[in-house]
Amino acid sequence: MELLKNRIIKDGKIKEGNVLKVDAFLNHQLDIELFEKIGEEFKRRFEGKEVTKILTIEASGIAIACIAARYFKVPVVFAKKTQTKNIAGDVYTSKVESFTHGKVYDIIVSKEFLNVDDKVLIIDDFLANGKALLGLVDLITAAGAEVIGAGIVIEKGFQEGGKTIRDKGIKLESLAIIKEMSVEGGVIFS
Question: What are the alphabetically sorted keywords of the record (predicted)?
Fold first, then answer.
């Protein structure tokens, strides 16, 4: 998706440790017009697939998932990273390691919102090591639901996450795949 790649080049900032900051438009300040194009593109890439729910993880994936859901005309469920008083009853849980935060989280979805009849599309902002995505897949599997695929805005193709997900036979559509990045050399796309 050229529009997204151009925006990454223009406004993305590379930090030490393979961190790409895109908070000017993707995960702090949100460019809704860009999100509309992203939602349209995910709909195009998963055209013909029956989707009954979109699943994401808090927090940065929520806005993208909500706009994508408008095109699929389905609800969004997001996995919470902490148990709250709002989640009552039975839950599905999985452990995920965040590349960006360097922490392990228990992610939680109420069993009320994910069930055996669901055909679930996962939407998220980044794919690095694949741990968050695998955790979401675990929740879907625990519910007996079907994983339709995963739509990722930015994939760090030089990390193992994309290969891990594809090797599991999951349809993975990444809108921008970064082949290399460095503070000195910028971003090179696949």
Answer: Glycosyltransferase, Transferase
